[in-house]
Amino acid sequence: MPELIVTTAAPTDVDADVLLLPLLAGADDAGPLVPQMPELGALAAAVDASTDAGELTRLPAAEGVRARSVLLVGVGAEALDEVDPEDLRMAFGAATRSLAGTDHAALALPGASDEQRAAALEGAALGAYAFTAHRTEASSPKTALATLTVIASDEAAGKSAAERAGVLADVVAITRDLVNTPPNLLYPDAFAARAQELTADLPIEVTVLDEKQLAEGGYGGIVGVGQGSTRPPRLVRLSYAPANSHGSVALVGKGITFDTGGISLKPAKGMDDMTSDMSGAATVLAATIGAAKLGLDVTVTTFLALAENMPGGGAQRPGDVVTMRNGTTVEVLNTDAEGRMVMADALVDAAATEPDLLIDVATLTGAAVVALGTRTAGVMGTEGGRESVLAAADASGEPFWPLPFPKELRKDLNGRVADLSNIGDRPGGALSAGIFLREFVGETEWAHIDIAGPAFTAKPWGYTSVGATGMSVRTVLAVLEQRAR
Ligand code: BES
Ligand code: MN
Ligand code: ZN
Questions:
Q1: The overall pTM is greater than 0.85
Q2: Does the annotation count 266 as an active-site position?
Q3: Counting C-beta atoms within 10 Å of the first and last residue's C-beta, which end of the chain has fewer, N or C?
Q4: Domain segments of the chain: what residues?
Q5: Atom of ligand 1 nearest to the CA of 266
Q6: What are the pLDDT digits (tens) for 324-356?
Q7: HEC profile for the chain?
């Protein structure tokens, strides 16, 4: 997260390594437009700078500009107020992402509305991220942009935009850092310890159940998944309960710190991506931290279902029957369908808090990736739960797609010897996983978010760098904001 500074100085007067400016498509023959800075428009025209959204052109500073260089950011429109806020986030995120290794950038949006400036600033803050924790000097790591100065005509509006962008970028970075941490270092107990450290200075109470307490408490799903690893499972409960609460939301996150598939072992190719199988837990932890940092008037109770899915000598076998936290018995026909097993136990506890809304986030199924691609999250659950998430996604700009449950898939989850089987038919796999989870939420208003596609990426774009994306954190936090009103 870069340090954010607000100034009311003129764009030409700010001392920085680089000045970021939007480049608008020209309305006439004058070429691309840099609002109120015609001399830069002429330079942009001379190098044929693209005005397409997210296209970047770096120029030496023109005369009269104090910054050492200028980065023109195409926004794909003739006026800033025509640009979708998420497209602005993407464009300015691409800009700051390209500035890894740079110390100080300033961001000017002459004539922008407060809302558009806030979006550009958010994107710029999100794009200024790099994960260099495990690089030595030998690989010449480029650290993320360190300082971002935003130029605003109204200082108060600028400050409040910077504060909010700071919290959002901060919690997204918390998620990305956790997900990017390699699986030898982030195992269930290490994750639980990180949750405690990250919340130590916040009004959030943390309780951790260890493997013994999980066994005694009847968390058969979590215990079963975790038993193949030498590093035992954990269930972390976080509670943010402000005095003036306007409602309650429970959050549940899938925290498989590494998913080998267990005895139903995954193929070697791409298995390393399964370091990201705890993205749901990282997301709900970060959203809870965000609620506390923003001081939202909503009660949040969060569960992180943490286990490592390994094929050790003590691992569960395909065909094992376990008894879940609510007494339901499940036959584990495929040990690679482990996410729903750990989630189910945590969902029972979350539903028992009787929240107004229960949201779970999980990298649950490859089928969701097939259905929706690598950038869009699927949202399932009750109609009201889905609507709450989609409304929040509208505000955050993140892409979500509704997947209502078809009736006929439930019967395929009937077990041969137990109440349920942990897999259904292959077609509609994202939906069967959701329908499995439904068995554990009772009558609670509920949204199930499958982020298997968008949580982790091999290719960067917009404000998203390679590896962990932090996708869905801003939307879950937006739900909490809407419930705090
Ligand atoms: N963690 C995986 C799902 C996943 C796949 C996440 C690709 C991110 C990218 C999950 O535990 C899993 O293995 N699901 C199985 C379920 C199947 C066995 C019913 C799957 O999707 O193949
Ligand atoms: Mn799996
Ligand atoms: Zn998994």
A1: yes
A2: yes
A3: C
A4: 3-168, 186-484
A5: 13
A6: 999 999 999 999 999 999 999 999 999 999 999
A7: CCEEEEECCCHHHCCCCEEEEEEECCCCCCCCECCCCHHHHHHHHHCCCCCCCCCEEEEECCCCCCCCEEEEEECCCCCHHHCCHHHHHHHHHHHHHCCCCCCEEEEECCCCCHHHHHHHHHHHHHHCCCCCCCCCHHHCCCCCCCEEEEECCCHHHHHHHHHHHHHHHHHHHHHHHHHHCCCCCCCHHHHHHHHHHHHCCCCCEEEEECHHHHHHCCCHHHHHHHCCCCCCCEEEEEEECCCCCCCEEEEEEEEEEEECCCCCCCCCCCHHHHHHCCHHHHHHHHHHHHHHHHCCCCEEEEEEEEEEECCCCCCCCCCEEEECCCCCEEEECCCCCCHHHHHHHHHHHHHHCCCCEEEEEECCCHHHHHHHCCCCEEEEECHHHHHHHHHHHHHHCCCEEECCCCHHHHHHHECCCCCEECCCCCCCHHHHHHHHHHCCCCCCCEEEEECCCCCEECCCECCECCEECCCCHHHHHHHHHHHCC
